[in-house]
Prior knowledge:
The chain is α/β, with parallel strands linked by helices and 494 residues long. The chain contains 16 helices and 24 strands.
Amino acid sequence: MSPLWTAEEAAAATQGQTAPGWQANGISIDTRTLVPGDLFVALAGEARDGHAFVAQAFEAGAAAALVHRAIPDAGGPLLVVEDTLEGLQALAAAARARTAAKVLAITGSAGKTTTKDMVATVLAAVPGAQVHKAELSLNNHWGVPLTLARMPPETTHAVLEIGMNNAGEIGPLSRLARPDVALITMIGEAHIGNLGSIEAIAEAKAEIFEGLETGGTAVLPGDSAQLAILQAAVPEGVQTVLFGPVEGAAFQLIAARVHGGATVADAALRGAPWSIRVAAPGVHLVQNALGALAAVEAAGEDPVRAAMALAAWQPGAGRGEAWRIALGEHGLDGEIALFDESYNANPASVRAALAVLGLQPVTDDIGRIARGRRIAFLGDMLELGEAEAALHAGLAEAPEMAAIDLVHCCGPAMRALWQALPRERRGHWAETSEDLAERARTTLDAGDVCMVKGSKGARMGPVVEAIKALGSAQPLEASVAGPNGAPAGRKGGS
Length: 494
């Protein structure tokens, strides 16, 4: 396999100075995950300067290091540029220019990573495809260029995720990526504390169209209240495709059914009836799936084959994973079902997770006690600004809350929801997730179905682990039959 970058290629791309002869098979910005043969990029941040770790990078096997100042006795060849972030961006631009890959870029207030992974899963099933995708949630001002700079020249499809905290951040990344397809999953209140209004959020997300290639495709959520704002931002020479539960959408959601750990949807793909299955519970997930299928079609692939390949997708950690916790030896004391949504949260995604929880059947505690309960463990939603208290408290009146029996909360912001809940639905409130995790061990019984969600900063992982530690945790079975017993994903009509 040819190297990702040679010394000569990297120097030409960055206009930097380096010794000849080295070659790199990957790129790293963190010595803890560096693989021998990587080019180490010494990014300088507010809290940490990568230049302090150059020697460690060479000890770990780095092929070379991209730096913007001298490193005495570094231990290996240096590629010296004026600024390492700009150097990384230059590598990204060069990687984009040298490939014939179709580039798909995804943004949105929720569902970015899930939809990115769906698209990548589907494209990987295309014969001969070599798919390159963003790892985890590398979607910011250094994550996007890092993903592009890691893209091999022989890539056929690249799937990128682009995020933001403020206006003006997505546009430059889109212009760097030059996507052929740009998808917006949905518009919600995430980062409203920074942007001030839902309309401003829509405008910021629509920056993804700034780099869209002429002849490309913009894929939009047809049910968004901000659809007009998004459509107005689509440049001339670009096709628009709508998806979602709206009449006339090219990828229309008609109905969806949640069964345990899976969801089956009746849909219309350009008017043809189809059944689509995803291996996780949630109507919002089949909405994401339809957006993914629209993006794949826009990249020139068959959406029918894509719909069937979608069955291979699995949710990532903290993004809807479903677990069955067997209590007692061999589960003789019953079971608890857990839906792990702990990765991140905003008002829209919390409502979606509550909807999933509300659809779950609850059972008797092995025939001895009253039926189980639907229980939510919720942590703070962050970056909501002056609307923070109102948005937290407002969840108490959300229609999705009606089917929830009990809500436990943690964090100062989530106290507003706890206080707004009716007494019969109000569980515990704790200052931290660790405190709530301790209580979780004594607040669940056999037959209960629970869900854990909160922003990254709320650190809801300890609650998830405490619940899983109550017994033997196994993934919840996601298999489900389609209409009339046919495997979901088969064509439902002519």
